[in-house]
């Protein structure tokens, strides 16, 4: 049983997009269930904590952003602990655990957390629990869930060793072992296979059903997350900018449609540099919000004001992204990410609001350890959302409070600026592909949330490639997101290599527009070479910004325009070994690339797909450097790491 006076620990998080904060808050909420009291703070709020004298166990949850950097909210803290005047025993009193978040699709996996972890160790701090490294590329929950499970026992042991009076502290196990003989006191959870209806046909695993051995197994499922919100319905900012132009950059028969938007930011006076991005806040699709309201039997109350309060004795906090007195429709439209894949804790919570026995069993399987493979296949990898689950399990009717407790904040989507304010004062250009998710057994076909909304939003002023854009203005919400490093070198004489296939070319259009204006204003100045490696499927269908790029090459702004087309047929001459992708052209120009980076101290910029292109470009770079310097792969990796450290190998990539 928990001790009478709950042991207290501190949670500190550094979050860029809200994931680390959400996980930290989840740990805080679970603490009371295990007999602990947790205080929580963002690392940026240094007035809330003092590690120099902290004697409680401390838990860090830290994400990674940019080119392996700590998140913005942790930058000040990192600078503070990196102070070289601190003695090596500065944190010898500190006992801590750290959960690092990252994505293996990007370089410097979990480097934000690793940076803090290694520095704390250098200053004498001690782990009381092994560091976790969670991979968003395979699913954060694969590491996060078991890491949190094991945390409670580690805290128990830590407090036992720190406080003699609490030596008998016990912590409830986070997992409940369920079998035919197991049941909870009070409310029994039926989880054996007797609830599964007998089927006469051959079963194939799907979102709705499992097959043996899972369907016949005893299950280890997470404990039911404690409810902490009370939601009542009562009758009752971001910067708005204008979309002044929308142009299709691809032909109608291109595989993917690419659209350029021009935002009028003159009234808001939003400053940006080429290389910066803009956050676009988009709503959830109206049809999906309406279906969710109908499914929850709340359609007639969608205009009611929402009152959110903590349940009595709850130590949790009301999520900051849920406004008081906002209408239910507004909150479901603008505040909650209803498209997000439900985490296992959410799936577990849905079980208690599901009436059908076989549906309840299947939900228990999906959130259990034994059903992890099915969860990954039919929920996470299939991009299943809450509405998909409610369609698949019609007897499930969760209360509104459960959605507010488990659905994350609707995050803005970032798009790189494809323009320079020197060439387009008061305007910014954004470029995107309209993302298409094909139909699957788990869900119908649908467009990406933001790209689909933007495409529909501008349909009334949309113009095909080569036509004059309309002057009608439509509104959207946008805020600049400055980049700390992805900018042109401060010294214009430094040569630059840019790699940007597809819409990855967007920030480089801004670079080139900027450089063109700088050259016009400073004709006597020395400017370094600018190389661009661009690629697309078809020269005549999706060669983005073709006329503008050829103009840059013609007037000398762009020293070398190197292009490739992966789906075009070989020309009449039947070119042998024709380059297909940007990395092939990099290899063909290996001597030039190596000279720019190694001899001329130039910079390499890569923008685009992280999963394939960025990895292939990185592998090619290792090969180029290895061949040029006549060194093995390990030494080539060290050289590339040095380029990253010097901020001369920079990436703006996405998965």
From TrEMBL:
Q: Which parts of the sequence belong to the FAD-binding FR-type domain?
A: 236-489
Keyword set for this entry?
Answer: Amino-acid biosynthesis, FAD, Flavoprotein, FMN, Methionine biosynthesis, NADP, Oxidoreductase, S-adenosyl-L-methionine
Identify a single GO molecular function assigned to this protein. FMN binding
Gene Ontology CC: one annotated term: cytosol
Broad EC category: oxidoreductase
Q: Which cofactor does it need?
A: FMN; FAD
Where does this protein come from, organism-wise? Cyprinus carpio (Common carp)
**InterPro entries (UniProt xref):** CysJ-like_FAD-binding, FAD-bd_FR_type, Flavdoxin-like, Flavodoxin/NO_synth, Flavoprot_Pyr_Nucl_cyt_Rdtase, Flavoprotein-like_sf, FNR_nucleotide-bd, NADPH_Cyt_P450_Rdtase_alpha
Q: Which PANTHER family match?
A: METHIONINE SYNTHASE REDUCTASE (PTHR19384:SF84), NITRIC OXIDE SYNTHASE-RELATED (PTHR19384)
Q: What is this protein called?
A: Methionine synthase reductase
The EC number(s) given in the record are: 1.16.1.8
Q: Tell me the Pfam families matching this sequence.
A: FAD_binding_1, Flavodoxin_1, NAD_binding_1
Q: Which ranges carry the Flavodoxin-like domain? A: 9-152
Q: Name one GO biological process term.
A: homocysteine metabolic process
């Amino acid at each position: 049983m928990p001790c009478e006076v709950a042991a207290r620990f501190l949670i500190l998080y550094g979050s860029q997009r809200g994931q680390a904060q959400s996980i930290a808050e989840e740990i805080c909420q679970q603490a009371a269930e295990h007999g602990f009291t947790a205080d929580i703070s963002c690392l940026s709020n240094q007035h809330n904590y003092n590690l120099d004298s902290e004697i409680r166990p401390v838990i860090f949850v830290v994400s990674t952003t940019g080119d392996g950097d700590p998140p913005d909210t942790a930058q000040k803290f990192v600078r503070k602990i990196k102070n070289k005047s601190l003695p090596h025993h500065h944190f010898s009193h500190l006992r801590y655990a750290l959960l690092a978040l990252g994505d293996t699709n990007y370089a410097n996996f979990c480097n934000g957390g690793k940076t803090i972890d290694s520095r704390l160790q250098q200053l004498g701090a001690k782990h009381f629990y092994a560091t976790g490294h969670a991979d968003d590329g395979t699913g954060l929950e694969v590491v996060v869930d078991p890491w949190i499970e094991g945390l409670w026992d580690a805290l128990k042991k830590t407090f036992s060793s720190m406080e003699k009076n609490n030596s008998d502290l016990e912590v409830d196990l986070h997992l409940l072992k369920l079998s035919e003989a197991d049941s909870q006191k009070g409310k029994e959870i039926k989880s054996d296979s007797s609830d599964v209806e007998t089927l006469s046909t051959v079963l194939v695993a799907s979102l709705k059903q499992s097959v043996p051995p899972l369907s016949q197994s005893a299950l280890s499922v997470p404990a039911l997350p404690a409810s902490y919100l009370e939601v009542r319905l009562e009758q009752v900012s971001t910067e708005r900018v204008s979309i002044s132009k929308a142009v299709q950059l691809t032909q109608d028969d291109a595989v993917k449609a690419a659209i350029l938007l021009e935002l009028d930011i003159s009234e808001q006076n939003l400053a940006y540099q080429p290389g910066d991005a803009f956050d676009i806040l988009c709503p959830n699709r109206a049809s999906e919000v309406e279906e969710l309201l109908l499914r929850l039997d709340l359609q007639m109350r969608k205009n009611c004001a929402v009152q959110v309060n903590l349940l009595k004795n709850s130590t949790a906090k009301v999520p900051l992204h849920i406004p008081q007195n906002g209408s239910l429709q507004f909150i479901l439209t603008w505040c909650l990410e209803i498209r997000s894949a439900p985490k296992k804790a959410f799936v577990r919570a849905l079980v208690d609001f599901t009436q059908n026995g076989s549906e309840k069993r299947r939900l228990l399987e999906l959130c259990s350890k034994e059903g992890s493979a099915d969860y990954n296949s039919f929920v996470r990898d299939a991009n299943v959302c809450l509405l998909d689950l409610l369609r698949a399990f019609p007897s499930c009717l969760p209360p509104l409070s459960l959605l507010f407790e488990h659905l994350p904040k609707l995050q803005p989507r970032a798009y790189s600026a494809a323009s320079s304010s020197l060439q387009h004062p008061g305007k910014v250009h954004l470029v995107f592909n309209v993302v298409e998710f094909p139909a699957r057994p788990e869900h119908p076909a649908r467009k990406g949330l933001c790209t689909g909304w933007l495409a529909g939003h501008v349909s009334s002023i949309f113009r095909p490639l080569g036509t004059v854009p309309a002057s009608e203005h439509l509104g959207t919400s946008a805020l600049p997101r400055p980049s700390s490093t992805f900018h042109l070198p401060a010294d214009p004489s430094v040569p630059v290599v840019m790699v940007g296939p597809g819409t990855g070319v967007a920030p480089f259009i801004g670079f080139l527009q900027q450089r063109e204006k700088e050259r016009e204003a400073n004709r006597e100045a020395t400017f370094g070479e600018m190389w661009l490696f661009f690629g697309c499927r078809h020269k005549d269908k999706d060669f983005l910004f073709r006329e503008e790029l050829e103009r840059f090459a013609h007037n000398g702004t762009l020293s070398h325009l190197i292009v490739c087309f992966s789906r075009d047929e070989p020309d009449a001459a039947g070119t042998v070994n024709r380059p297909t992708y940007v990395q092939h052209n990099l290899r063909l120009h290996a001597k030039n690339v190596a000279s720019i980076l190694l001899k001329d101290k130039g910079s390499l910029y890569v923008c685009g797909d992280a999963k394939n292109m960025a990895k292939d470009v990185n592998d090619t770079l290792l090969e180029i450097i290895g061949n040029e310097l006549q060194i093995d792969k390990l030494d080539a990796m060290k050289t590339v790491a040095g380029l990253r450290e010097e901020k001369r190998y920079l990436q703006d990539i996405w998965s």
